[in-house]
Amino acid sequence: MLDGQVAIVTGGGSGIGRATALELAGHGATVVICGRRQEPLDETGALEPHGRIAGITCDIREEDQVDALVDEVLARHGRINILVNNAGGQFLSPAEDITPKGFRTVVRLNLEGTWLMTHAVATKAFIPSGNGGRVVSVTLTPHTGLAGMAHSSAARAGVENLMKVLAIEWARFGIKLSAVAPGVVATETFMTKYPAAFRDHYTESVLAGELVTPEQVAQTIAFVVSPAGRAISGSVINVDHGHDVSQVRYPPREIATERGSIEQEARRT
Ligand SMILES: CCC/C=C/C(=O)SCCNC(=O)CCNC(=O)[C@H](O)C(C)(C)COP(=O)([O-])OP(=O)([O-])OC[C@H]1O[C@@H](n2cnc3c(N)ncnc32)[C@H](O)[C@@H]1OP(=O)([O-])[O-]
Ligand SMILES: NC(=O)C1=CN([C@@H]2O[C@H](COP(=O)(O)OP(=O)(O)OC[C@H]3O[C@@H](n4cnc5c(N)ncnc54)[C@H](OP(=O)(O)O)[C@@H]3O)[C@@H](O)[C@H]2O)C=CC1
């Protein structure tokens, strides 16, 4: 499906980024992954049997490192067809306790890092090639705001709007940009980084009774960047078992019947 395509996946050393790199490579793409540490990148590369994944260290917040990464990929492969902006994250905190530096840190990683990568790949590869390209940025649900993550919720809303405005401006270059918004994904980071009570609450109370897997997000991204996804641009695609519409099981315990349903109203004659 992706034979001959060259992709960059940021944050490809773990979780969703690793699953995405493996998925794209499995469809024939040559994939360059980046992250701040070399070791996890090498571990992902070792999981791919055909040598289609290589890692280059890059902090997506640093303009010079982003430029160097894109130049290196072009020097090695001569083109870039796909960019997956997956690197990101945040710390959990009540909004009133987030310091200016903490807020800036999270916005810089998720919004500015995504902008730097997208702008560099578009201006150095997609636009000069005349062939356009595909961009998918990983954001999150719920879109109504994720309590405890004010900085990240704001940044991801910015990323989704950025994808939309660039989908308008760069349609004339054949560049398609979208966001894929996962719900709660059972990655190692999600299972280990946050306080146990927060993690357990989400694990136990999500609407569908199950978390999203990294592979489910990866497969959606692969579809969007595949020939079948050619008409997708300016879209936000949730991969979340309905987490965007409800963050708790239905029906609420207080109104649940013994059947696990709700009571039907009596007909009035
Ligand atoms: C339902 C769940 C949905 C979502 C799930 C996921 O996304 S799972 C996947 C999630 N994956 C990831 O999140 C992976 C990527 N995430 C990361 O690398 C970090 O979490 C990062 C985003 C904070 C950046 O880190 P970095 O190395 O660039 O930064 P740094 O360490 O040097 O800190 C800079 C400043 O930030 C502040 N601050 C930081 N931590 C805390 C805190 N606990 N408490 C309070 N504040 C905190 C503080 O101001 C600090 O400055 P200080 O006070 O030190 O002068
Ligand atoms: N897990 C979940 O429940 C959800 C996750 N998401 C989002 O999906 C994405 C992936 O999440 P997940 O796989 O769980 O998390 P991980 O923590 O496993 O992945 C984050 C990756 O980003 C890399 N990274 C972090 N900072 C930078 C940076 N400044 N420059 C380059 N690379 C960086 C990390 O590598 P290194 O540390 O080596 O730099 C790491 O490989 C994130 O944006 C996350 O917020 C969205 C919704 C839910």
From TrEMBL:
<keyword id="KW-0576">Peroxisome</keyword>
<dbReference type="InterPro" id="IPR057326">
    <property type="entry name" value="KR_dom"/>
</dbReference>
<feature type="domain" description="Ketoreductase">
    <location>
        <begin position="5"/>
        <end position="178"/>
    </location>
</feature>
<dbReference type="Pfam" id="PF13561">
    <property type="entry name" value="adh_short_C2"/>
</dbReference>
<keyword id="KW-0275">Fatty acid biosynthesis</keyword>
<protein>
    <recommendedName>
        <fullName>Peroxisomal trans-2-enoyl-CoA reductase</fullName>
        <ecNumber>1.3.1.38</ecNumber>
    </recommendedName>
</protein>
<comment type="subunit">
    <text>Interacts with PEX5, probably required to target it into peroxisomes.</text>
</comment>
<dbReference type="InterPro" id="IPR052388">
    <property type="entry name" value="Peroxisomal_t2-enoyl-CoA_red"/>
</dbReference>
<dbReference type="InterPro" id="IPR036291">
    <property type="entry name" value="NAD(P)-bd_dom_sf"/>
</dbReference>
<keyword id="KW-0443">Lipid metabolism</keyword>
<keyword id="KW-0560">Oxidoreductase</keyword>
<comment type="pathway">
    <text>Lipid metabolism.</text>
</comment>
<keyword id="KW-0444">Lipid biosynthesis</keyword>
<comment type="function">
    <text>Participates in chain elongation of fatty acids. Catalyzes the reduction of trans-2-enoyl-CoAs of varying chain lengths from 6:1 to 16:1, having maximum activity with 10:1 CoA. Has no 2,4-dienoyl-CoA reductase activity.</text>
</comment>
<dbReference type="InterPro" id="IPR002347">
    <property type="entry name" value="SDR_fam"/>
</dbReference>
<keyword id="KW-0521">NADP</keyword>
<keyword id="KW-0276">Fatty acid metabolism</keyword>
<keyword id="KW-0597">Phosphoprotein</keyword>
